[in-house]
Structures are given as structure tokens and as C-alpha cells.
Amino acid sequence: MTTPEIEAEIRRLVLRDGWTVGTTARRFGVHHSVVRRVTRESAPLITPLQPTKSILDAFKPYVVERVSAYPELTARRLLEELKERGYTGGIATLRRFVTKVRAPRLRKAYLRIETDIGEQAQVDWGSFGQLRIGNTSRPLSCFAMVLSWSRALFVDFSLDQRMDSFMRMHERAFAFFGGVPRKLLYDNLKSVVLHHVGTTVQFNPTFLGFAGHHLFETVAAPVRYPQAKGRVEGAIKYVRHSFFYGRSFKDIDDIRDAARSWCQETANQRLHATTRERPAERLLIERMRLHALPEHRYDTDRVEPMIVSKEARVALDTNAYSVPPQYVGKSVHVRANDSTVRIVCDNEVIAEHARSWQRRRFIEDTKHTDAIAAHRPGAHAPRRRDRIASISVECRLYLQEVSKRRISLDNEIRKLDRLLRLYGEHDFAVGLAAALASRTFGARYVRTLIDQQRFARGLGEPPEPIITGNRAADDITVEPHDLGGYDDL
User: In which domain, by residue range, is 336 found?
Assistant: First the structure.
């Protein structure tokens, strides 16, 4: 009985070195027929290895589905999702499989430049598509700041990239890091750089005032060379793939809360691929070298001078905000931040509203409108019409269609206003959109369509409001309070 090793040696001696059959047979102590058989046969085939079972096998269909739907999804993100589904393996096995599922990326070589502790941070905006707010779509932007030494990351989201929002993001980042680095590196953002010709840079004087208040140096990256601020470029890509990609959010506050938690619990707690340390731990060292925050906060509000219109309103970002009627025709300043709009006249705040990020809405204080209505009883109908028209585009088109027909517009608006109070804005807007689509006009048809929509969701008719006959009492809108507290009793 010959072994595969002896047979291989017999083949080499006979077929390559020219040994005779007899000599070879005596060399290995075998019969000459064995030598002839071995040399006649073709080279033995390699026995294929039996595929070994992998701990990832049960999860491979899910990985293929996710990578096919979201090709840029990272292995780190997939690992988090698989662990929720019971996967107990490591990321190396997952990465090898993900590499087979999608094509490898092209890589370029760059020279990495390290900075001193507390020396530099890199800043940039990233575009993250559109966010739906009511009947409006707003561009969603991600602000990112990375400390170059510790790689500590701060992320926040905004619905615009205006100068006031840009400065507020900086203040939040400085508070998050616990200080201000010596230099901040930027791309050619208009908020920072007005003109960039060669090595000559003209910075935005408004932003230089902000930089002077916080005592940091503004540095502009070379034109069309994003690799100069590769840390923040990589951070935005990391945010896009590890945090944002494949997730859904209710509103801007939901995104901000999730981003804040992700920064603290994931981004700054991970083992960084370059430093092989956790950014949160390195930040403890770098924080001691950052400059202290200024004692007084910089004014980052958006300020717009305006004249109060004859409807006792001021406009901001296509929305109208009410003011007391005695200020009609006067010059005021509108001060706005992310959440609040204040109207100031002669250094006195005369009105304050929650900021609306929808478009073409009328934000009213009932005190202001009641003061107008007290002197103009006929103003109730236009107020109702404007309120209905501001809910959605379909509502405005519906009123335009009603005005073309032999229907009393004032009477129709009064009935629609009653439905609006009864069902709320969402159901009301759905009903009017359905009525407009089916070309059926009239409050009773709208109510039928609203009820059909509610019945389909398993809801019944809301209780009828109590009518007293007193206009002041009937016009009061009562917001129901949360009854969850009674569950604790």
C-alpha cells in the first residue's frame, strides 16, 4: 500500500528524472506494476475542502438584504443590528463577508499630520437631504466639529446654515468640549471666508467678531483640497453611515436628541482606528489645554429690522407673527433663535412666540387678535379664512374653489372652522384634501370624508362641543391636558 507521498516521488523520478520502472520499483520496494499504475494515472486531484459552518450563516440573508438596500452601510453599524438579533460573533467575520457582498473601494494615499494637544479643531457642514415639517420640507444640515488631537466629535443638526445658526453650533460645541482650541480650520464657507485668492484670504467680519470673543484663530483650508481637513470630512462620513443612514426621525428635536446620545455613547466611546484610544479618554487630557469659555455669552440671535404691517404682524422666513395692534406702522426688531421669536420695540419685548419651521403660517397670540376683533367685529371671518388657508396648500386651493361656486363663502368658512375645532388640523387637512381630489365642495361632504378616514383607523366621531351662544366663550380653544398622571393615583 503506497502513500500519496511515495506515489508523488515515483512520478517525479520516472517522468522527470528518467528512472526505469525496475529501478524505481526496487528503490521503494514495490512491484513494477505499481510503478506503471502510478505513472499512467494523471496527477491526483485535490480533494475539495468541505465548507465549514460559520456563526454568521444564519444572519447572511439579512446582511445581504441590508447591504443591497443601503450599499454604504458600515460593518460596525451592521454588527450593532445583528447583536440585537442574537449574533454573538465578532466584527472580523462580518467584515470579510461584507467585503464579498460589495465591491472594494478605491483607496488613495495621504500624509497624516499630527497636531499638538489643544492646538486645532476642524469644522464643516454636511448636507443630509430634506426633513418634512408639517406641510413643508426643510433642508437638513449636519454641523460637525472634531478636535484634531483627541478626535473627540461634536455633532448637531440644523434646518439652515445661516450665520446665527453657525455661531450657535460653535457655542454648543465649545460647551460640549469644555473649552476652545487655539485654531479652527474651515473650508471656504461663506459664513467664514468671503474671498480666497491664492494665499490671500478675506474673512467674514461678522464671524471674526465671534472668533475674537472666544479668542480662537480662524484658518481657511486651501481651495478644492478637502484632504486638508480630513478629520472632519471623515467625521461627517462616519455620522452619515453610522448614525443617520437607514434611520428615521420624527422631527428636528428627535434628531438632535439622538445625535447627542450617539456622540456620548458611541462616537466618542469607540476605539479610534488611528489613535487606538477612545476619544472620550483623550478629551480628558486635551480639555486641560483648551482655553476657558468666555464669561458672557455672544449674541447669536438672528436680528431683522421691520415695520409692523397693518394686520399687526411681522414676517420672518415666510411666516407671520402677531404683535399688539398699537404697534402698527412702528419700527421693531425681530430676534429669533432655534425655538423662539421675540419682537422688540424701544428695547422692550412686546411679543414672544414659539418659532415655526413650517412656511406661510400665521402664528398668533389670542390677546393680539382679540384686541383687533374688539374694535372690528367683522374681522372674525378673515381670521378664520386665513387660519384655514395656512394649514396646507390643499386647504387654500379648496377655499379658492369654493369662492368660484354658488356657495356662501362666509357661511362655508364658519362651518369649516367648526370642523377644524372639532377634529383638529390633521384630520381636517386630510378631509379637505380628499374633498378637493373628488371635486365635492361643502362642509357636510368634508365631514363625511373626515369620518370615513377616522372610521378606517378605528376611531369614532368626536363629541360635539357645547355652544353657549356667548361669542367670547364659544371662541375659546381648550387644549386637553395629559391624563397620564391619574394612572399613578
Answer: 301-364
- pLDDT score for 214: 95
Q: Is 225 contained in some domain?
A: yes
- Based on the domain organization, do 138 and 278 belong to the same domain? yes
Phi, psi at 64, each rounded to 5°: -60, -40
| Nearest CA among 136, 130, 158 for reference residue 319 | 136
With a threshold of 0.70, does the pTM exceed it? Answer: no
Q: How many structural domains compose the chain?
A: 5
Residue for grid cell 383687533: 372
Query: What angle is formed at CA 101 by the lines to CA 98 and CA 102, rounded to 5 degrees?
Result: 90
Sign of CA dihedral 365, 366, 371, 375: positive
Grid cell in block for residue 244:
443617520
Whether 373 contacts 356, CB under 8 Å: no
- Residue 132 is assigned to a structural domain of this protein: yes
Q: Which helix (H) or strand (E) element contains residue 302? A: strand 302-307
pLDDT above 90 as % of the chain: 44
Q: Write out the three cell numbers for 406.
A: 354658488
CA distance 299 to 292: 18
Contact of 34 with 2, CB cutoff 8 Å: yes
**Does 285 lie in the same domain as 191?**
yes
Residues in the chain, total: 489
C-alpha–C-alpha distance, residues 480 and 486, integer Å: 14
